[in-house]
Write a structure and sequence with these properties.
Elements: E1 2-4, E2 7-13, H1 15-32, E3 39-44, H2 48-56, E4 63-73, E5 76-85, E6 95-103, H3 107-119, E7 123-131, E8 144-148, E9 154-155, E10 171-174, E11 182-185, H4 192-203, E12 206-209, H5 210-219, H6 223-232, H7 240-252, E13 260-263, H8 269-280, E14 288-293, H9 296-310, H10 313-316, H11 318-332, H12 335-340, E15 345-349, H13 354-366
Parallel strand pairs: 3-4, 3-6, 6-7, 7-8, 11-13, 11-14, 12-13, 14-15
Antiparallel strand pairs: 1-2, 2-10, 4-5, 9-10
The chain binds BIS(adenosine)-5'-pentaphosphate (AP5) and magnesium ion.
InterPro entries: Adenylat/UMP-CMP_kin (IPR000850), Adenylat_kinase_CS (IPR033690), P-loop_NTPase (IPR027417), PRTase-like (IPR029057), PRTase_dom (IPR000836)
Protein name: Adenylate kinase
Catalytic activity: AMP + ATP = 2 ADP
């Protein structure tokens, strides 16, 4: 496994397989262009390595020209094809073999085809090391294909992720891990912490309660704790940047986790978006948001009861408890829609015996 710009990639296609695929493409091109003098038009940057290998196998005379184009930003195709080095050679009436590293949506191929028509070539064909039939949306024929691949993001052998990875001799694909990441959701006192303590054992997950981490910092009188206390004591949310950085540090403490139970996080859209980015960088995502649904008056009762012994200042005062519930509805409840849109929201009745509720939650988790 390798890490590029913070993302993990695992080996996918070996150098041997790549060279074998290139041998096959070279065989076909040598057959089709025997006795001719084609111009090989290399599309930089990605195709440089494929072009070097392919051209070293070409048996006749040929010319080599370059253009530079791009359509990727990070791991996503932008759909916008940009030309950085334009076509300079005169290709009128020439036979051209375009050398591409990868054809996916076909946007670059469309642009090159237009370029060939304008240049007045006699004939042109396309040789691509990789072809993604699953994402190809155009009609243009790809004449020579090294390997067909599914719709995964790959790097290596000329292909990059944000500038890195082109020098690798094998192909690597973005690592997806089978982590189970759960967001345990619900208003204050809904039972998130109570249920998380059972679920983490049952599913071997790491439980992160942002409230617990804040309270630990308050107890240890850290800078973070002092800052957080001023908000928590009033039942307000701690600012996003502080909370997101803290959560990120907590996640980093167990890089080999089977998955996480996020309890009390995310509480705002900014936090939800930050969590998506954080998990994506680990090649994983939120599996589900499971919400414990409990009436407000029951919540107040539970928290006042706990306040008698917990030492939690935010449990001691009914007005603060009610403010926490209000903040939940005003600022946090909208996240239901955020996860519903992704089909990841599950509501569970949070009233009843604690073990009954664990069973309700488990039946959701077991179906994920
Ligand atoms: P946090 O610690 O997350 O508190 P909370 O959301 O207010 O929720 P609680 O922990 O009080 O309740 P819970 O749902 O875990 O229920 P529990 O299992 O304890 O956050 C505290 C503060 O930190 C926030 O107000 C905010 O200031 C700050 N903060 C935290 N995360 C933040 C973030 N992401 N962004 C910004 N600020 C953040 O159960 C409650 C009680 O009910 C217990 O006594 C329990 O024994 C009892 N109980 C549980 N289940 C049952 C049941 N089935 N029947 C009867 N009683 C039950
Ligand atoms: Mg809690």
């Amino acid at each position: 496994m390798i890490t590029l710009n913070g993302l993990q990639f695992e080996e996918y296609i070996s150098e041997e397989e790549l060279l074998h695929a290139i041998d096959e493409v070279a065989l076909a091109i040598n057959r089709d262009f025997k006795g001719k003098r084609p111009v090989f038009l290399v599309v930089l940057n990605g195709a440089y390595k494929f072009a070097t290998e392919l051209l070293s196998r070409f048996e006749g005379d040929c010319e080599v020209e370059f253009i530079k184009m791009s359509s990727y930003d990070g791991t996503a195709s932008t759909g916008q094809v940009q030309t950085h080095i334009p076509l300079e050679a005169d290709l009128e009436e020439r036979e051209v073999v375009v050398i591409e590293d990868i054809v996916d949506s076909g946007n670059t191929i469309e642009k090159i085809t237009q370029m060939m028509v304008i240049a007045g070539v006699n004939k042109y064909c396309i040789a691509s090391l990789f072809f993604k039939p699953g994402s190809y949306t155009k009609e243009y024929k790809i004449h020579y294909v090294g390997l067909e691949i599914p719709n995964d993001f790959i790097v290596g052998y000329g292909l990059d992720y944000n500038g890195l990875g082109r020098n690798l001799n094998a192909i690597y694909k973005l690592k997806t891990t089978k982590m189970t990441n759960l967001v345990l959701f619900g208003p204050p006192g809904a039972g998130k912490g109570t249920q998380a303590s059972f679920l983490k054992e049952k599913y071997n997950l790491i439980h992160i309660s942002t409230g617990d981490v804040f309270r630990y910092n308050i107890k240890s009188a850290t800078k973070l704790g002092t800052l957080a206390k001023s908000y928590i004591d009033k039942g307000q949310l701690v600012p996003d940047t502080v909370t997101i950085d803290m959560l990120s540090a907590e996640v980093d403490k167990t890089p080999d986790a089977n998955g996480f139970i996020f309890d009390g996080f995310p509480r705002t859209t900014a936090q939800a978006e930050a969590l998506d980015v954080l998990l994506e960088e680990k090649g994983t995502q939120v599996a589900a948001m499971i919400a414990l649904e409990v009436d407000d008056e029951i919540l107040v009762k539970r928290l006042l009861e706990r306040g008698k012994t917990s030492g939690r200042k935010d449990d001691a005062d009914e007005a603060v408890i009610r403010n926490r519930i209000k903040v939940y509805y005003d600022e946090t409840a909208i996240l239901k829609g955020y996860y519903q849109k992704q089909d990841k929201y599950y509501g569970v009745d949070g009233v009843g015996e604690i073990n009954e509720i664990t069973t309700r939650l488990s039946s959701v988790i077991d179906k994920l």
